[in-house]
Specification:
The chain is mainly beta and 185 residues long. It has one domain. Helices cover 11% and strands 32% of the residues. It is built from two helices and 13 strands, in the order βββββαβββββββαβ. α1 packs across α2. The longest helix is centred in the middle third of the chain and has 10 residues.
C-alpha cells in the first residue's frame, strides 16, 4: 500500500498560518498522539502577521487545524482516531474571525518507517530524526487510515484509500505527497 504525507500546502498564494497559540496551550501536547482534555471552546488561534487571507482546509504549524469540510470528510470515511475541538482563526491585521475550524488531535503515534529504505538525518542530540524521502513498513503500519509517525511526530500520514476519498472532496491548500517524494520541507 502507498502512504502519503498529509499537510498544509504552504505554496498556496496568500495562505494563512498560525502565529501564536493561547498561553495555556502546549503545542507538544497536540503531537504526542495521546487523548487530551478538551480545551475551552472554541479555541481562538491568532494567525501570523505574514498570513494572507486564504484559509485552506489545513492550517499549520504548531498544531493541526482542519476545516469543517475536512473534518466531515474524515468522519464520513470512518476515521475514528482523531479528536476534534472547535476553533476560530483570528486575522491579526483585520481582526476578522473565521469560525468552522477544528483543532485535530490525531490519537496514536506509530513507529513504522522502514529506516533501511529511507533517507534521514539524526538531530544534533542524536535523539530525533529529520525524515526526508521515506517508506512505511506496511507490516508495522496501523490499521487507522491517518496517523502520526513516532519517528517524527510533526508528520501526519494517510493511507491510499483515504487519499482517494479525500481527492473526491476537492480540498484546498492541502498537500498530499507520496512519502518517497518528501524532501524534508
Amino acid at each position: 500500500m502507498q502512504y502519503y504525507l498529509f499537510d498544509q500546502d504552504l505554496l498556496v498564494r496568500r495562505a494563512v498560518t498560525i502565529g501564536s497559540l493561547p498561553d495555556d496551550m502546549d503545542p507538544l501536547e497536540w503531537i504526542r498522539g495521546q487523548v487530551i482534555t478538551a480545551p475551552p471552546s472554541p479555541v481562538r488561534l491568532r494567525l501570523s502577521d505574514s498570513s494572507g487571507d486564504t484559509p485552506g482546509d489545513i492550517v499549520q504549524p504548531f498544531v493541526t487545524v482542519y476545516s469543517d469540510k475536512l473534518r466531515q470528510a474524515l468522519t464520513n470515511f470512518g476515521v475514528d482516531n482523531v479528536e476534534f475541538f472547535p476553533a476560530e482563526l483570528e486575522h491579526p491585521r483585520t481582526g476578522r474571525i473565521t469560525p468552522d475550524y477544528w483543532l485535530a488531535n490525531i490519537v496514536g503515534r506509530v513507529n513504522c518507517v522502514d529506516m533501511e529504505n529511507s533517507t534521514y538525518e539524526r538531530s544534533r542530540s542524536g535523539k530525533g530524526l529529520y525524515l526526508e524521502a521515506f517508506t512505511i513498513d506496511e507490516k508495522r503500519a496501523p490499521k487507522q487510515p491517518i496517523f502520526r509517525l513516532d519517528e517524527q511526530a510533526t508528520l501526519v500520514i494517510i493511507n491510499e484509500p483515504l487519499k482517494e476519498h479525500l481527492e473526491t472532496v476537492r480540498l484546498t491548500g492541502v498537500r498530499i505527497l507520496p512519502t518517497e517524494e518528501f524532501d524534508g520541507d
